[in-house]
Structures are given as structure tokens and as C-alpha cells.
Automatic annotation (TrEMBL):
<dbReference type="GO" id="GO:0017061">
    <property type="term" value="F:S-methyl-5-thioadenosine phosphorylase activity"/>
</dbReference>
<dbReference type="Pfam" id="PF02578">
    <property type="entry name" value="Cu-oxidase_4"/>
</dbReference>
<dbReference type="InterPro" id="IPR011324">
    <property type="entry name" value="Cytotoxic_necrot_fac-like_cat"/>
</dbReference>
<keyword id="KW-0479">Metal-binding</keyword>
<protein>
    <recommendedName>
        <fullName>Purine nucleoside phosphorylase</fullName>
    </recommendedName>
</protein>
<dbReference type="InterPro" id="IPR003730">
    <property type="entry name" value="Cu_polyphenol_OxRdtase"/>
</dbReference>
<keyword id="KW-0186">Copper</keyword>
<feature type="region of interest" description="Disordered">
    <location>
        <begin position="17"/>
        <end position="42"/>
    </location>
</feature>
<dbReference type="InterPro" id="IPR038371">
    <property type="entry name" value="Cu_polyphenol_OxRdtase_sf"/>
</dbReference>
<comment type="function">
    <text>Purine nucleoside enzyme that catalyzes the phosphorolysis of adenosine and inosine nucleosides, yielding D-ribose 1-phosphate and the respective free bases, adenine and hypoxanthine. Also catalyzes the phosphorolysis of S-methyl-5'-thioadenosine into adenine and S-methyl-5-thio-alpha-D-ribose 1-phosphate. Also has adenosine deaminase activity.</text>
</comment>
<dbReference type="GO" id="GO:0005507">
    <property type="term" value="F:copper ion binding"/>
</dbReference>
<keyword id="KW-0808">Transferase</keyword>
<comment type="similarity">
    <text>Belongs to the purine nucleoside phosphorylase YfiH/LACC1 family.</text>
</comment>
<dbReference type="GO" id="GO:0016787">
    <property type="term" value="F:hydrolase activity"/>
</dbReference>
<keyword id="KW-0378">Hydrolase</keyword>
<keyword id="KW-0862">Zinc</keyword>
Length: 256
């Protein structure tokens, strides 16, 4: 169920895997992404993760590969429904924020409330300042990296008073596996040189993790890397490996 968990002061982070849930089919039993297709299984899977981590609520987003950031206030967190992470797949609930980054000040006063990002090859990036309790969750694939979603999230956290930020870059498709057309590589590398890479079979690729680390370091953020290539590790979800049938893993960050 949990790929890894880490702590930094009052901050807790976790990344999930494909196991320990109730989803049926080739995507693995712990699919946290198919909320519309199978809301009952998604609800149970999220409930299992919440119980395992001791979370009161999980705030999620509808990710669209853009640079926009959504602020989650303590009032928002207090009013967030128990199944709010399922969005409007639950009758009567509002649609999830249509963004690729969530940020929040210290939410511990309203209980352990986690911000959540879901991926199946893209980068799940979690951000936190353990002193102020400001946290962020970011979905950063090739398009989002080039659009500047990580600097935007860091700036939003600074605006909340965050000082020394730490980022956790979670499991994602590695440079040795992320093959792209040569023209796409040239255009991407022109904007972010750290993206330049080659697959293990000698064709053009992109190194999302290296580019994210370079952007975050330039923003004064300390970077921690959580290992695992989604394409080659059978314990992780991968769209590149499994196509449309792939599930989603989650990265979660909260403050105790």
C-alpha cells in the first residue's frame, strides 16, 4: 500500500503503490485515480490509505498539465467533505479544483488533512516548510515542468510565509525509459537543459527528475529523491507500460 513514508519535523509525506486495495483488473488493487469509472472502489481504496496514515481528510485536484496553483485555506479544509477527494463522482459534491498544484498554510488545527497528487509516470512532487507548516502537492509532467508549475508552487508557498522549503520528488518514469521524438527533445531541452537524456537503448529521452531538481534548487528548495521507475517497477502504476488501463499512485503531504 505504501511505497514509502518520511518525516521532517511535523511534516509527513507518503507515496502509495499498486497493492492493498480492492480495485479489480490489470491496474492493480490500489488504483487511486479512477474515481469516475469505479467510485465505490476508489472510495474504499482512499479510505484504506486514510486509515493507514491516520488522515481525517484528503484534498485532491483535477490535474490538467498546467501551471495553476490552488490555495487550500484552513476554512476550506474544515469544510472539505469526508469523500471530497472523489470530487463530483459523489452526487452532490463539487468538482475538484482544476489545477496542477495545491498549497496550504498549516492545517493541523483542523486535524490531519493531506494534500494529494496522483500520477502514473509524471512527477509527484511534495513540498513543505516544517517550521511554518506550509505544504504543497504538485503534478509535474513534461508539459507542467515546461509551463513552470514548480516555481509557481514554490512562489505560492513563499507568499504563505514559508522559509526553508524541502521537496520530495516521488516515483516517476526514469530518463532511461522516457523515450520521446527527437524534435520534442530538442524543443524541451532548449527551455530546460537538465531534461537532456538518452534511453537505455540509445534514443532521445527526457529526464523529468533532473529537470525538476534543477528548477527547485534554483528556487532555493532542498530536494529529496524517492526512488522507483514507474515503467519498470511492477509495484507502481505506469501509463507508459499499461496504457489506458493503468491506475494512479498518490503522493500525500500533511502536518501533524
Amino acid at each position: 500500500m505504501l511505497r514509502t513514508t518520511e518525516s521532517l519535523g511535523r511534516v509527513r509525506v507518503a507515496f502509495t503503490d499498486r497493492h492493498g486495495g480492492v480495485t479489480t483488473g490489470p491496474q492493480g488493487s490500489l488504483d487511486l485515480g479512477r474515481t469516475d469509472a469505479d467510485p465505490a472502489s476508489a472510495r474504499e481504496n482512499f479510505d484504506r490509505v486514510r486509515r493507514r496514515l491516520g488522515l481525517r481528510r484528503v484534498v485532491a485536484m483535477h490535474q490538467v498539465h498546467g501551471p495553476d496553483v490552488h490555495l487550500v485555506t484552513p476554512d476550506d479544509a474544515a469544510a472539505w467533505p469526508e469523500q471530497g477527494h472523489l470530487g463530483d463522482s459523489v452526487p452532490g459534491q463539487a468538482r475538484l479544483p482544476v489545477v496542477d498544484a495545491l498549497v496550504a498554510p498549516d492545517l493541523s488545527a483542523v486535524g490531519p488533512v493531506a494534500l494529494c497528487v496522483r500520477v502514473a509516470d509524471c512527477l509527484p512532487v511534495l513540498l513543505a516548510d516544517p517550521v511554518t507548516g506550509a505544504v504543497g502537492a504538485v503534478h509535474a509532467g513534461r508539459v507542467g515542468l515546461l509551463a513552470g508549475v514548480l516555481p509557481a508552487a514554490a512562489a505560492a508557498l513563499r507568499a504563505l510565509g514559508a522559509g526553508a522549503l524541502t521537496a520530495w520528488i516521488g516515483p516517476h518514469v526514469c530518463a532511461a525509459c522516457y523515450e520521446v521524438p527527437a524534435t520534442m527533445q530538442v524543443e524541451a531541452v532548449a527551455a530546460l537543459p537538465a531534461l537532456a537524456a538518452e534511453t537505455s537503448w540509445g534514443t532521445p529521452s527526457l529526464d523529468l527528475g533532473a529537470a525538476a531538481a534543477a528548477q527547485l534548487t534554483a528556487e532555493g528548495v532542498a530536494v529529496r529523491r524517492v526512488g522507483g521507475c514507474t515503467r519498470t517497477d511492477p509495484d507502481l502504476h505506469s501509463h507508459r507500460r499499461d496504457g489506458a488501463r493503468s491506475g494512479r499512485l498518490a503522493g500525500l503531504v500533511w502536518v501533524t
